[in-house]
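DATA SHEET
Item: assembly model
Revision: 1
Owner: S.N.
Input lines:
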Amino acid sequence: MLHSKKVRSGVTNIGCPLLFGAALVASWQTGLLHKILKTDEYILPYPMRIIDIMKENSDKIMLNVNASVKVALIGLLLGSVLGYLIAIIATVFPKYGSGGLTIVSAFNAIPIVALAPVFINWTKDVSDIAEERSMAAKILVVTVTSMAAMSVNAYRGLTELPPFSEDLMKTYAAGRLTEFFKLRFPNSVPYIFTALRVSVPGSVIGALVSEYFAEYIIGVGRQIRENILIAQYATAWAYIVTACIIGIVMYAILMLAESIILKACLHRT
Amino acid sequence: MKKLKKLLTSKFFITIVWVVMLIAVWELFAFHVENIKRTPENVQPHLSGIVDSLTSDRKINGSQTALQMVIENAKATLTRAGIGYIIGIASGFLLALFMSLSKIVEKTSFPYLMLIQLIPILGMAPIINAITGDIAKSRIIIAAILTFYPVATNTLAGFKSVQREKHELMYSYAANKFQIYTKTMIPACIPYFFTGLKISAPMAITASILVDTLQGGIGLGCLLSQSLKGAMTRYVFWDIVFFSAVIGILSFYIMGIIEIMMCPYRRTGKR
């Protein structure tokens, strides 16, 4: 009895979303979606056509994917490391540190659109090659956007400790470094992943949007825009699908890493 | 003496110190840029220069000063962001409500709600612009989509946070569905609902400005790209950068204030 119930809930768990997705694709392929959105197959091409174009242009698409993913990953890494360092500093100097955190989290509310051109101005002298210049500016944008999430969450992980654990460390006469590596750092690991869940999708968006303003024309986001400017809607859709795939794959990798690492951590304690 | 010490360690004072430090760093950098560049305002102007450009009554495009121009364009952008925001809030809340009422709706839409967060919607701005064919409409639509999912997921989390005991209590009162929702479920989800609102307010503004840059017309983003291309003084660009930063941060805090006004029961700590 219990078994059949489990199977049935499993069927609705997977079946319902699949059915909905299938209905969506079917209405798209049959042109029903075009009627609802009042558009034509020129601006919104059929799914099969988009897939064909992705196959045809796979080399060029991969080139742009490389550029965008590089920006997103480097920026994410820099931003996360910086954010974690800020959190450590804030933990060491709690009074002024948490005030600084408020400022950092306020950066989060600044529109990326305003940040990107400013950083492009700042990085004008970084290199003589336009490609490297633009790269630096784009990475800076992603760094700033992913820094805020990490610093706020890591600070919570470093300070919201299990009750009496700090006192326990004191009775062991543990130094600050030991306290950090044995208590604070392990405690912050789940919080790091909380931050990454926000900043991984955020880094992809940051990379795509900063490409709009960059000097050098490369990247998935920029290609969407360029292709629309020359009215190549089908190619633009191929890049949109690519962008979605990047977002989903990066998040899936994060989920996988999280489950493996958190399991290892739980096992140890 | 004690009072002074209290003031020095108060949260307000610490924030002020940080802001002053930021301004100092900015100005130092600006002085440095001034020495090495011919046109420092392209890279980093002094803050005083930015304030000057806002207060001066010099006409930039023949009829308007910089401040008038920024305000006029901001009105257009913020109105559209606001409309999109409200539509997004309403549809997000309704979807969360339906999801909590019906298991099938929840099962069907939850994976897609997760998926939509991973899709760079802002990257899709140009195509939405092409589909609607109207830039004003696409601004509203994108702001609405970006508002929609944080509100929907957070509100749903709020509905789910209601403890079992409360459901049992309502059951023992023989409350009907409507009463259960108005008396327990909706009040319980309000704090979560506002978390969604706080996350999405700056996003709606970002979306609206970004869509502006795609096409000419009126709006902060259009003005921003015109100024970057050199159609008017660079200070307009800096005005917009600071204006949008302030608006983005303010929108977050305004939502917090509305939250406190709407659900004073959260201020239990002060009772």
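QC remark: The CA atoms of residues 66 and 106 of chain B lie 49 Å apart.
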